[in-house]
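Let's sit down with a protein and look at its sequence and fold side by side. Once you have written the record down, we can walk along the chain together.
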Amino acid sequence: MPRRVGILGGTFNPPHVGHLLCASEAAARFELDAVMLMPVAQPPHKPAPSDPGGEHRRAMCELAVTGDDRLVVSRVELDRPGPSYTIDTLRALHASAPEDELTFIAGGDMAVSLPTWREPEAVLALARVAVTERDALRREDIAAAVAPLEGAGERIAFFDMPRLDVSSSDIRRRVAERRPIRYLVPDPVAGHIAQHGLYRAAVGVR
C-alpha cells in the first residue's frame, strides 16, 4: 500500500527537540504516514565537529523517537560509503518502495541552495521538498532562487513551525562546559550522552 513518507536528514550531532518538532510539524502539515530521521555517515560539504561516530548518532536518534509511532530512523546513508548526497538517498528509497510518495524536509538555508545540489531537478522529480521558513520575504527569496529548476513551482512547499533557539552546536558546547541540556534534548538522549561521555572534551561549532 502506498505511503506518504517524509525524510529529515542531518548529522543529528546530537538530535534535539527542534529536530523532533520539525518532523512532527511536517507530518501534520503534509499528512505523512511516517517521517524518517536519516543520520548521515559523511556530510558532503562539511565535517561533523566532535563527531562521536555514526552509530552513536543513530542510537541517539532511536532514543529520541521512542514513543512516537510516526517517527522512525533509517540507516540508508550510514550503510552507504562516501559522502551522503540527497539524490542517492532518494533513488535508494524509491528503488526499495517505488509506490511511496516521498517528501524531503529542509530548512530555508538548505533549500535556497537547492540549485547547487547534485542533480537538483532529479531530486524534485523523486520527492516534494518541504521547506520550513516563517519569514514571508525569505520564502520569496527561496522561491526566486529555485525558480529556474524544472518542477520547482509544483514540487516545493512551505510549512510553519514554532521557532526554537536550539542547535546541536550549542548542546555540544553546553556539555563541554558542564552545563545542563535537559529539555533541549529528550531525556534518553541526555542519558546516552552522559553514559558515554560524549562531547565533553571539545567544543564543536555548527
